[in-house]
Amino acid sequence: MSRPLTLHPDVFFSSNTFERDIARRLYRKVSHLPIISPHGHTDPRWFAQNKPFANPSELLIQPDHYIYRMLYSQGISLDALGIPKNKQSGKMADPEQVWKIFAENFHLFRGTPSYYWLNYVFVNTFGIDIKLNGKTAEHYYQIINDKLTTDAFLPRALFEKYNIEVLATTECPTDNLQYHQQIKDSGWSGKVITAFRPDAVIDAEHESFLHKLNRLSEISGLDCLHYPDYIEALSQRRTFFKKMGATSTDHGHPTANTADISDTQANRLFNRLTHGTVQADDAELFRSHMLFKMAEMSIDDGLVMQIHPGCYRNHNKHVFNCFGRDKGADLPNATHYTTGLKPLLDKYGNDPRLNLILFTLDETNYSRELGPLAGHYPCLKLGPPWWFHDSPEGMSRFRRATTEVAGFYNTVGFNDDTRAFLSIPARHDLSRRMDCAYLAELVAKHQIDEYEALQLATDLSYNLIKSSYKL
């Protein structure tokens, strides 16, 4: 039996009618604001080439680790889902069969944010009005596949339909940004910019560290196995990224540790990492030093600095060895900010030229360290809940843990941080709904007036993210 698929207009709002009415009024004012997406991992090639997406599975399942990690947790192999292996050759999984597996297991996502995001896409992007399951899988696949062949579903058309004002991708310093250049040369009005992500050329424990350094040497014309040239090359690449539209850098280190060491010490450390066996303590010290150096460079060139620490990346060794990075096996670690950031803040914490946005997977830290830090240091702002916490409950906990000590204006609004292009409006809609629900609660308790809540809802949905990322 096919059941109807609808999105309730009051989803995520309070069951308290007084609060719900306030949330409705706030949401009506912000629901159609343009989307600012200042940090994410969509492929710039989509917008440069503007070719049709191949099929529903390639578009909605295979780029989205939220989806296939859940299926994998229930014993469904990544091979069966068509996730490409390292150095894969030969025939890939049949996309229709991949979709059938996904549809038959869609019930696994009930109660998760992915369930809302996906249903939002099915209703608002594809106009589907029955629920997805094994019996409706073929119906879904045919509707979506047919629409993907039309001009209205080309990447640029969807970008415009979604009312995206700015979309940032993320690239390594060794990337030549050819697709960004193609976008600039095309005359298309959509604004797709890059962000500078140097982890692979900073983390000596990254499996491609030396390879990336050699590539950095090629693209910069400098000897990047020589520390002074290496630093100069990173500075040059930042300048190039900024010229190509970047307004931010991003750093996904295991910790938030920073270290103020001399150039002589850094030179010796770099030589050990590039000409010998990498020791874990040396790799951590160098990452800590380079966060410090990246802050110095941000002061000089004005790029906003994001730190996404506390992630044990590629925890599943088998999946990493077979399929590579970013396959849903990144897990939270306890993270310390007060002590880890102290060397950086001692030197630059009061410098108005530094703009540093902090993220965490360790949400126990919000009230203990992050809220108090952002509530004091002028350079610090709090990024929104990320990865496991970019969910209704995670967003609610974030506001409750940070607002009283840091306020709203030491946060930066929402960013979606996604590889799944079609989920972007759904993710922003969820965030706007959760903020409206929280603000409605404050109004109902007479902590703020409704006109203040409306201003806050607008700022949290649009203004703060735009100003924080200099967009």
Account of the protein in words:
By secondary structure, the protein is mainly alpha-helical. It folds into 2 domains: 17-50 and 163-468, TIM Barrel; 52-153, uronate isomerase, domain 2, chain A (Orthogonal Bundle). Helices cover 49% and strands 6% of the residues. The protein has 20 helices and 9 strands. The protein has helices spanning 17-30, 44-49, 56-60, 65-73, 95-104, 113-125, 137-148, 155-161, 178-186, 199-202, 209-220, 227-243, 263-275, 280-301, 317-323, 342-348, 365-374, 392-406, 424-444, 450-468, and strands at 35-37, 164-168, 192-193, 248-251, 304-307, 311-312, 331-332, 356-358, 380-382. A 4-stranded parallel β-sheet has the order 4-5-8-9, with helices on one face. Strands 1-2-3 form a 3-stranded parallel β-sheet. A two-stranded antiparallel sheet has the order 6-7. The radius of gyration is 23 Å and the shape is globular.
Give a quick rundown of the structure.
This protein is mainly α. The protein has helices at about 15-30, 45-50, 55-60, 65-75, 95-105, 115-125, 135-150, 155-160, 180-185, 200, 210-220, 225-245, 265-275, 280-300, 315-325, 340-350, 365-375, 390-405, 425-445, 450-470; strands at about 35, 165-170, 190-195, 250, 305, 310, 330, 355-360, 380. The termini are far apart.
